[in-house]
Amino acid sequence: MTPYERLVKIAEAEDRTPNQIVELSKRHPSIVSAIRNGKKGFSEELAYAIANRWGYSKDWILTGEGEMKLHEAPKRMSSTDFLQKTVRIPERAELLPVLKTPLYARAGMGYTAYFNRPPEEQEWDYVPENKLYPGVAAEDHTIVTINGDSMEPTLLAGWEMLAYKLPEGLYPRVEKIVMLDYKDELIIKRLAKVDWQNNTITIQSDNGRMKVEIPMDEIRQVYHVYNIHNALI
Fold it and tell me: Where does the record place a coiled coil (predicted)?
């Protein structure tokens, strides 16, 4: 039995689609076509999520060997593991997939590698449509995690924030929080000034320790950080 046949068997048993089963692992549903075409098998994370949620044998999911269903449900994940490895299947159309930008993808080699991955190898989460910025498509949003103390007391380390891309050459109003794609790094600061005459912007931290002027032509992308996704510490 191929990995896709096992996926279909699980989906039929649970009265769900293969896409919904894959979404349990925080992976983009496009991975279903890769499994169906034999380009990919089950990842460890996907197998673990399905085993934990539905009580299937992880070994059977990965290899097809042994019993399909465990006689006893496996031990439930901790809440931390659940947040890291699974995502609630959307029951209604207003939940839309949004790309997550994890901390390791915020700078340097991690930045380049993560954004060059295919969608099925990136991290995703679901966001209610009414939490998306009005008039901006889900694919132009991202979920970014705050690190450090530069934005305290407004934003705390560990919070997940919603942000969206702005069209080239546009900025939100002064005093809004922005994320800048600047020198292969994504930095989150408050927009303090937009100087169109000198083609620079000034950003600053909320803790008062940093203020810097940046040439506009060195900024590859501007995001407006506008709402909380998860305020978990």
Answer: none
Query: Is the Cβ–Cβ distance between 162 and 226 less than 8 Å?
Result: yes
Report residue 163 as tokens.
């942000």
Which one, of 168, 158, 99, lies nearest residue 127 by Cα? Answer: 99
Distance of alpha carbon 152 from alpha carbon 174, whole angstroms? 18
* CA 206 centroid distance within chain: 25
CATH 2.60.40 fits 3-81, yes or no: no
Rg for the chain, CA atoms, rounded: 21
Q: How do the domains of the chain map onto residue ranges? A: 3-81, 95-230
CA distance 160 to 156: 9
Q: For CA atoms 62, 115, 213, 178, give the dihedral sign.
A: negative
Helix (H, G, I), strand (E, B) or coil at 64: coil
232 band by pLDDT with thresholds 50, 70 and 90: low
Cis, bond preceding 97 (omega within 30 deg of 0): no
Cβ-contact 178, 188 below 8 angstroms? yes
Write the pLDDT tens digit of every residue in 189-198. Answer: 999 999 999 9
Pair 30, 119: CB distance under 8 Å = yes
Query: From CA 91, how far away is CA 106, in angstroms rounded?
Result: 31
Cα 110–chain centre separation: 15
